[in-house]
Amino acid sequence: MTRLRHTRAIRLLSRFCADRTGATAVEFGLVAMPFFTLLFAIMQTSLVMFGSQALQTMTSAGARKIMTGQMKNASFSEFKNALCSSSGMSAMFDCDNVFIQVVSFPDFSAASTQMIVNPKCFKREPQPTAADCWDPGTRQEVVIVRVAYDWPFAVNLDDVSHKTRITAVNASRNEPF
C-alpha cells in the first residue's frame, strides 16, 4: 500500500512539474506593470507632441491675422476668443488654460535683444491684463506671439493634477496695412 502511494505521489509530482498551463499568466504578471507603464508613457508623449503641433498651428493662424491687419483694432480678449474659437482649438484645448502674449518691436534686431517674455502673461493669478500682454503693433513692425497651454496628463497614477506647459511662438513682420 505504501509503495502504491509512493508511486502515485511520484506520478502526481511529475505531472505537476510537466504542466505548463499557468506559465503564461505568471510570465505576463511579471512583465505587465513595465509593459503598461511604457505603453502609457508612449501614449502621453504622443498626445503632448500632437497638442504642441496643434497649438503651433493655431498660433501661426492667429499671428497671421495680426500680420495682415485683421486684428489691428481688436482687443486682447477678442484675439483670445478668435484664437480659441478657431477650428480644432476649441475641441482640443480648454481656453481657461491658454495664456497669450503679443509684443511688437520696430525691427528684428530690437526683438532679439529685449526680454520678450512677461511672466505676468503666463500666470493664472493675478489675471493678466491687456496692457501687459497685448501689443499687436502697427504697420511694418515685428510682432512676436507666444501662446502657452497647461496640458493635463492623460494617465495620472498618483491622483495629483500634474500638467506640463506646452508653448508655441511665432515671429513675423506686419504687412503695410
From TrEMBL:
Transmembrane segments: 21-43
Residue span, TadE-like domain: 22-64
Entry protein name: Pilus biosynthesis protein TadE
Keywords, sorted A to Z: Membrane, Transmembrane, Transmembrane helix
InterPro entries registered for this protein in UniProt: TadE-like_dom (IPR012495)
